[in-house]
Amino acid sequence: MLRREGARATFFVIGSKAASYPHLIRRMAAEGHRLGGHTLNHAALSRADLETLNREIDSGQEAIASAGGGLVSHFRPPYGELGLRTLIAVKRRKLNLTMWSHDAVNRTVADRTLAMEALKASRIACGEIVLLHDNEAAILPVLPELLSFLARGGWQCEALPDGLGGREESATSAST
Q: Average model confidence (pLDDT) for the chain?
C-alpha cells in the first residue's frame, strides 16, 4: 500500500519480530523505508535494570541487522517511556531518540470514521511524526484514506533521515 502511494515510512521494529520475519525486514529496506530499533522484546525500559536495558537495546539492534535491515540510526522506546538511563544508553550508541507528534489513530476504537476524524482534528504539520501501530485493527483500514488525505493537502510521507545520530551506514545501503 505504501509503495503504491509513493509513501515512505520508518518502521520501529521489535528485534524478536525481525528475527521471526526477516523477509519483511529485507522488503522494508528494499522498498526504501527506514528501520529503527524498538528493543528485543518490547520491554518497558524505565522499569528494567541496567543490564536488561542494555541487552534489550543491543540485542534488538543486532536482530534487525541480522535480518537484513543493516545498522539503524533511530530508536523509539516502547510505550514512549523515557528515563534518564534510557536516554544515556541511546546517546552512547549514537542513536537518534525518536518519539512522535500524533497518536490519534492508536487511541481510537477500531472505527475508520472515528480514526480519520481524530487524525484530521490533530492538525498534522510538516515534519511531524504520526505513530501507527501494526497491531491495531484501525490502522490498515485507515491507511489508504490517511495517505490520500495527506496527499490532497500537499503532504508527502517520508521516512526519517538516516545518519543523524552519527552512524554512517543506512538501512537501505546495508541490506542486500
A: 85
CA–CA gap between residue 160 and residue 151 (Å, rounded): 18
Q: Residue 130 carries which DSSP code?
A: B
| CATH class (in words) of the domain with range 1-99 | alpha beta
User: How many of the other CB atoms lie within 10 Å of CB of 96?
Assistant: 20
The answer for 138, left when phi > 0, alpha when psi is -120 to 50, beta otherwise, is: alpha
Which of these, 123, 78, 74, lies nearest to 102 by C-alpha position?
123
Residues 6+ apart with CB under 8 A from 128: 101, 102
Phi, psi angle pair for 83, to nearest 5°: -110, 170
Q: pTM to 2 decimals?
A: 0.85
- 83 three-state secondary structure: coil
What does the domain layout of the chain look like in residue ranges? 1-99, 100-157
- Residue 75 phi/psi, 5-degree rounding, is -140, 135
